[in-house]
Specification:
The chain has helices at about 15-30, 40-55, 65-70, 80-90, 125-130, 145-150, 165-180, 195-210; strands at about 10, 30-35, 60-65, 75, 100, 135-140, 160-165, 185. The protein has about 220 residues and is α/β, with parallel strands linked by helices. The chain has an eight-stranded mixed sheet, with helices on both faces. Bound molecules: NADP nicotinamide-adenine-dinucleotide phosphate (NAP).
Length: about 220
């Protein structure tokens, strides 16, 4: 996977806030992007809106989740935690040998600003356990507000921690972070997604306490 620009990306749940924003940034960087939805019609409608925002028809395409995953080399999962297991099961036949970048984080809707762990310790670890070793799961973007992503021209004032157990998959995911306009840091094995996903709840709390919407993280003291 030496030239990511030849890749087609499927953003599963790409009709939503986080996935739509990433999709716009990746097409702007020259990638082919298909947004997936449980409904092909909803995907088509959301595509039309995003392409209008981007000022060019046909830039992003849309499909039902399985068809989107089938058409893609690299899969991005951007769905709420509660939907993750069923969605992954529905697209599993299309994931053989592929990389899956999980954007999702477990957040308890009743206490979103308190770090709580799901049964498998992180949504990314649960995805890896469910999919098996044939699918290489990488965690990224958990700490990036969808509001930043909603305007593809906007400069994003935060960094992205990337966790994964497969070195090649992690490099591919880090390239996708850079293509979306952010700096990626290798944050170690997929197990470290426990902390990265948990940090999302801390950012939710900081946003709330400081009446902000764009709290994020920056790594300092490192020369890249
Ligand atoms: N929003 C943020 O600022 C942010 C920041 C960092 C990380 N994240 C993580 O990114 C993931 C996606 O966040 P988001 O804000 O983009 O979510 P969202 O807009 O609520 O949902 C994303 C998409 O997931 C699909 N979906 C599938 N099953 C669903 C269900 N049972 N209920 C609701 N939607 C379902 C929907 O697409 P279809 O209806 O088209 O299938 C929906 O458009 C989450 O895990 C979140 O924790 C979000």
């Amino acid at each position: 996977m030496s030239n990511n620009l030849l890749l087609t990306l499927a953003v599963i749940g790409g009709t939503g806030a986080e996935g739509s924003g990433l999709a716009m940034r990746w097409v702007r960087s020259g990638y082919r992007v298909v947004i997936g939805s449980r409904s092909a019609q909803k995907a088509a409608e959301r595509c039309a809106e995003l392409n209008q925002q981007m000022g060019e028809p046909g830039l992003i395409s849309g499909a039902e989740n399985s068809a989107a995953a089938k058409s893609a080399d690299l899969i991005v999962l951007a769905v709420p935690y509660g939907a993750q297991k069923d969605i992954l099961e529905s697209i599993r036949p299309e994931l053989n040998g592929k990389i899956l970048i999980n954007v999702g984080a477990w957040i308890n809707p009743e206490r979103p600003a308190t770090v709580e762990l799901p049964p498998g310790l992180s949504s990314s670890l649960e995805a890896q356990e469910q999919l098996g070793a044939d699918v290489r799961v990488v965690a990224a973007f958990q700490n990036v507000s969808a509001e930043y992503l909603s305007d593809p021209e906007r400069e994003i004032d935060c960094d992205v921690l990337v966790c994964g157990d497969d070195a090649e998959a992690k490099v591919s995911a880090m390239r996708m972070v850079e293509a979306a306009g952010m700096t990626a840091y290798d944050a170690g094995p997929l197990k470290n997604s426990i902390v990265v996903e948990g940090f999302t709840s801390i950012l939710v709390g900081i946003n709330k306490r400081y009446h902000a919407r764009l709290a994020g993280i920056r790594i300092t003291g490192v020369s890249l």
